[in-house]
Write a structure and sequence with these properties.
Length: 301
C-alpha cells in the first residue's frame, strides 16, 4: 500500500471505495500506514467527508480508516442493524474486517451510543473512544429537529420531502465551515430519495436503547474522550455531561461551537483528538475521573 497520509481526503474519496463486511457493501476511505490505527465513523446526515477539514492533522501520526456505517453515507442498509446496540457489534466486525488489533475509535453523533455499547460488550477491543454530540441522556433531552425525528409516528412526510432537501437544510446550520463542493454532493447523494427517511429508524430506537445504554455505562473501562459543542441546540451539552458523570474513565470538552464540531471547530477538534491519541487516553485510563473543560476554561466535574 502506498503512503497516502498527506493526500487530502477529497482526493482519496473522489471515487467511493467499498468493502463487503458481513454481506453488506460498506464505504470507506483510508490514509497511509502508521504505527497506530484509528477507525473514524461518519456522523449523520453526512459521510466520510465529514473528516475532510481534520483529516491531514489526524493522518500525520495515525493510520485512519473512515467508514460509513450501514444505512448511512454510501453504505448499504440492513434493518436489523438500525439500533445502537446492533451497530456497536457491527463496529467490532469492521475492526475485524480491516484486521485492526486495537484501534482508536472516533464516533461522534450517532456513533456515540453505538461505540459505547461496543466498548461495554467487547472490553479491550478498542484502545480508546472519542464520542460526543450524540443522544445519551435519560430521560431524552434533545432539541429539534432531532427530537421530532425520534418521536415521529409517520416517516411518510420525510419521504415526500426527500433526503437531499433535508440534508441541504441541515448543512445550513453550519456557522463557520464552508463544506467543499465534493463533500456537499457526497452528503446529498448519501441520503437522496428515501434513504434519509429510512435512516431515521436508527434514532427512533433511542427511547429503549438509551435506557439500556445507561445501565452499562459504568462497565465501560475503555478511556473515553467526549467532545461536544457548548452551543449545540440539537444535542444539548447535558448529553455529554450525562456520559461524563457515568463513565469510569472519561474527559469532557465543551467547545465554542454548535452541533457540527468536527467541521465548525475543526482545528480545535483535531488538536483535542491528536493530544488524546498522543497519550491523553493513557492518563485518563489511569484516573477515576478526568477534568471537564469548557473551551479554554477548565471546571471540575
Amino acid at each position: 500500500m502506498t503512503d497516502r497520509g498527506e493526500h487530502p481526503l477529497s482526493e482519496i474519496a473522489s471515487v467511493p471505495t467499498f468493502r463487503t463486511i458481513d454481506g453488506l457493501s460498506i464505504r470507506f476511505v483510508e490514509s497511509g500506514l502508521r504505527d497506530t490505527d484509528a477507525l473514524l465513523f461518519s456522523p449523520w446526515p453526512e459521510s466520510v467527508f465529514a473528516y475532510e477539514p481534520a483529516w491531514a492533522r489526524l493522518a500525520e501520526t495515525t493510520h485512519l480508516i473512515a467508514v460509513d456505517l450501514p444505512g448511512f453515507g454510501r453504505s448499504e442498509r440492513r434493518d436489523a442493524l438500525m439500533t445502537p446496540r446492533a451497530m456497536g457489534d457491527f463496529m467490532v466486525r469492521v475492526a475485524d474486517a480491516f484486521r485492526l488489533q486495537k484501534p482508536h475509535v472516533v464516533a461522534p453523533d450517532i456513533g456515540t451510543s453505538a461505540s459505547l455499547f461496543a466498548a461495554a460488550t467487547h472490553p479491550n477491543r478498542f484502545r480508546s473512544l472519542v464520542v460526543g454530540t450524540g443522544g445519551a441522556a435519560v430521560p431524552i433531552q434533545l432539541g429539534n429537529p432531532l427530537r421530532e425525528w425520534v418521536f415521529a409516528r409517520d416517516l411518510g412526510p420525510y419521504r415526500r420531502i426527500g433526503g437531499r432537501a433535508i440534508v441541504e437544510r441541515t448543512l445550513g446550520t453550519l456557522e463557520r465551515y464552508k463544506v467543499s463542493d465534493a463533500a456537499r454532493e457526497d452528503y446529498l447523494a448519501s441520503f437522496e430519495g428515501d434513504r434519509f427517511a429510512e435512516s431515521i429508524r436508527y434514532v427512533q430506537s433511542y427511547p429503549t436503547e438509551l435506557e439500556a445504554l445507561s445501565a452499562v455505562l459504568p462497565q465501560v473501562e475503555t478511556p473515553v474522550q467526549i467532545i461536544s459543542g457548548r452551543r449545540d441546540a440539537v444535542v444539548p451539552p447535558v448529553n455529554a455531561e450525562y456520559l461524563h458523570d457515568r463513565l469510569p474513565h472519561s474527559e469532557l470538552h465543551l467547545i465554542d461551537a454548535p452541533h457540527f464540531v468536527w467541521e465548525d471547530a475543526a482545528d480545535e477538534y483535531a488538536s483535542l483528538v491528536t493530544a488524546w491519541w498522543a497519550g491523553g487516553f493513557e492518563i485518563c485510563a489511569g484516573t477515576s475521573k478526568a477534568i471537564a473543560t469548557e473551551s479554554a476554561t477548565s471546571r471540575g466535574h
